[in-house]
Write a structure and sequence with these properties.
2 copies of one chain form a homodimer. Chain A has 11 helices and 2 strands. By secondary structure, chain A is mostly helical. Chain A has 2 domains: 66 residues, Arc Repressor Mutant, subunit A; 160 residues, Four Helix Bundle (Hemerythrin (Met), subunit A) (Up-down Bundle). In chain A, a hairpin with a 5-residue loop joins strand 1 and strand 2. In chain A, helix 2 packs across helix 3 and helix 5 runs parallel beside helix 10. The longest helix of chain A is centred in the last third of the chain and has 28 residues. Chain A is elongated, with a radius of gyration of 23 Å. The C terminus of chain A is likely disordered. The structure holds a DNA duplex (30 and 30 nucleotides).
DNA sequence: GCCCTGCAATATGTCAGACAATTAACAATT
DNA sequence: AATTGTTAATTGTCTGACATATTGCAGGGC
């Protein structure tokens, strides 16, 4: 590991980069312990707070975890899909909520990607996946569901569908695309009719997957995409009425 | 913003979360300035180093940027696709290189996603996109290209293809899927024949897109996927010969 | 011999105060 | 009017200390 720093740039940033590179290159093995903060401070010839800032940067990227106590320290974290998903959702949510991208573009991307899952899902879905999907469909039909609960169930349904591909990389990408849209979807007021329509399409998807009927699945997915776009028009109309548009803001 | 902290958990982490939520909710507007470190320390009733650790966490996620000087401070950064892509590539590379996922799964996910881009790319590709793709095809045919250069050109070709969808969200996702595989692809030794085969398929893709022929594009993409999987078998065979497998490690 | 308690060691988490470096705005000078 | 100090505000870093958590070991009681 390079330990001489450029005095013109932030030390903590350079130290974080050095350690990060050491992790990526495999110099620091997974679950291996980094030197103690005091050690690192000596090696890089900086103070402990500076080292700590560097470590916090790495911790924020889930590259390391820290543990207190005698045998504690900073350990290289094996990247997990759960953490990566969380990260992805955060990033995607930010991109979508900060007006960087409009509703139509997000919907288009999401359904294009989700459509890509259908062939694999048709071929590999297990009874457990189908059961999850049907459980959500049942939930979506219950009375007294708030819009947010309906949305959450919708997300759960689609995640079950994506998981049916049996490909964690695909699940990881899709989780970002699907979950990040929840704040936008939460702005939609679902009428009883639109709920029924969506639930019917979910039902069609589940049936198509159960029967391995890719054509039917594609059709249902396309219908869902265009229907979601229609509902989105409602959002856009409402947003254009207000001067400042901050989709994610609650107050 | 909530300023009372749970004494059982890390202060710096809680403060980072609070500020992050304030950013996401829109309480702290884009390009807005955060209170000074001293201010934040007073508000949260902690010391300045603790506040700084929190800010470094946020800086590591590209949520804020800091500036020194009289009118300096921490400013909320507008999330950009460039930064998000960089982040995505880093995360995806880590997942792929740390043995969390095998080659076949990564290839399957990548081509499933890329296949999803074809309908949009067929419909929207501009002459500029086609020119980019053809430039890479030409490059791939030149003599004296190293394997790494060939790989880089391959990535550039596919990025051009993805960009042809005109959907930045899609591009963002795909950049992660495509670029993250480069380290793995770099392990492949491309024979003259395999290069020719790949370049031919690229040519077929470009032609199909130029003519808006989705069926042909799908066929070419599928052929590319299965051919890549074949080449990957070579990797697996070579890796199984060595006890420790660290794809990303260079030494 | 075995288990429990208490202490020492080691590490991270936090605090307080100080100084250095950078930058913008303002005042003074030519 | 333009240029040049000067000052104030803010981040970046250092030092030293204390608080807290956790492990391991030693000693005592059973």
């Amino acid at each position: 590991m390079k330990t001489d720093l450029d005095s013109a740039r932030d030390y903590s940033q350079q130290i974080a980069e050095n350690i990060r590179d050491a992790i990526i290159s495999g110099d620091l093995p997974v679950d291996g312990r980094l030197p103690s903060e005091a050690d690192l401070a000596t090696r890089f010839n900086v103070s402990r707070p500076t080292v700590r800032e560097a470590l916090k940067r790495l911790a924020a990227q889930n590259l390391i975890r820290t543990q207190r106590g005698a045998t504690g320290g900073a350990f290289v974290t094996r990247p997990s899909f759960e953490q990566a998903q969380e990260h992805m959702v955060t990033t995607a949510t930010l991109l979508l909520s900060m007006n960087t991208v409009d509703f139509e573009t997000a919907v288009e991307a999401r359904f294009a990607l989700e459509r890509a899952c259908l062939p694999l899902a048709c071929a590999r879905r297990t009874p457990a996946h189908l059961a999850s999907m049907r459980a959500e469909i049942a939930r979506q039909g219950t009375d007294g569901l708030t819009d947010e609960e309906f949305c959450a169930s919708d997300v759960a349904f689609h995640r079950a569908l994506v998981d049916a591909t049996g490909n964690p990389v695909l699940s990881w990408h899709m989780a970002g695309a699907v979950e990040a849209m929840q704040p936008l979807m939460n702005m939609i007021t679902f009428t009883a009719r639109s709920r029924a329509q969506i639930t019917d399409l979910h039902q069609a998807l589940a049936t198509a997957l159960a029967e391995g009927d890719l054509t039917a699945a594609n059709a249902a997915m396309d219908a869902l995409a265009s229907y979601t776009l229609d509902l989105g028009g409602e959002i856009r109309a409402r947003r254009s009425a207000r001067p400042t548009s901050r989709p994610g803001a609650t107050g």
